[in-house]
Amino acid sequence: MYQRLPGFQMYDPYVSHEMTIRDLLTHRSGMGLGEGDLLFWPHTTFTRDEIIYRLRFMKPASSFRSRFAYDNLLYIAAGQIIPPSPDNPGKTTSANTFCFPRNERNESKQRSL
């Protein structure tokens, strides 16, 4: 992850180095259930980059990849991997890439997400 998202760092340097996109999306990071949700809920003034920066200060509740614990912050990080482009805003790109099979992506541009 640190190669795809500059500045990405978890509390444990090993986890920072070994974390993959799959790890971000499968809730097995070692973070506790809902860890850090107050950084964005209820509405705050923290930016996505500020939220991702604060990951490095959150002590793990379990070892890396050892158990499932739902959290939202790593989905914010995953969303930052695909940058927006003038032709296609980042949210649309992410939704098309992760939610629709390749042959349905063109159709999905006309869908309202």
Which properties best describe this structure?
single chain, 113 residues, mainly alpha, 35% helix, globular
Secondary structure layout plus pairing:
Blueprint: H1 13-18, H2 21-26, H3 48-54, H4 73-79, H5 90-99, H6 105-108
Helix pairs in contact: 3-4
Architecture overview:
Helix 3 crosses helix 4. The model is unreliable at 107-113 (pLDDT under 50). The chain has two domains: 1-81, no CATH class; 86-113, no CATH class. It is mainly α and 113 residues long. It has helices at 13-18, 21-26, 48-54, 73-79, 90-99, 105-108. The chain contains six helices and no strands.
Mean pLDDT: 80
Q: Topology as H/E string?
A: HHHHHH
Residue share in β-strands: under 5%
Indicate the percent of residues in helices: 25-40%
Tell me the number of structural domains: 2
- Quaternary form: single chain
Decide which structural class fits the backbone. mainly alpha
End-to-end separation: 27 Å
Q: Tell me the number of strands.
A: 0
Summed up, the helix count is 6
The main pleated sheet reads as: none
Global Rg: 15 Å
Low-confidence stretches: 107-113
Shape: globular
What's this, in brief?
The protein has 113 residues and is an all-alpha fold. The chain is built from 6 helices and no strands. Helix content is 35%, strand content 0%.
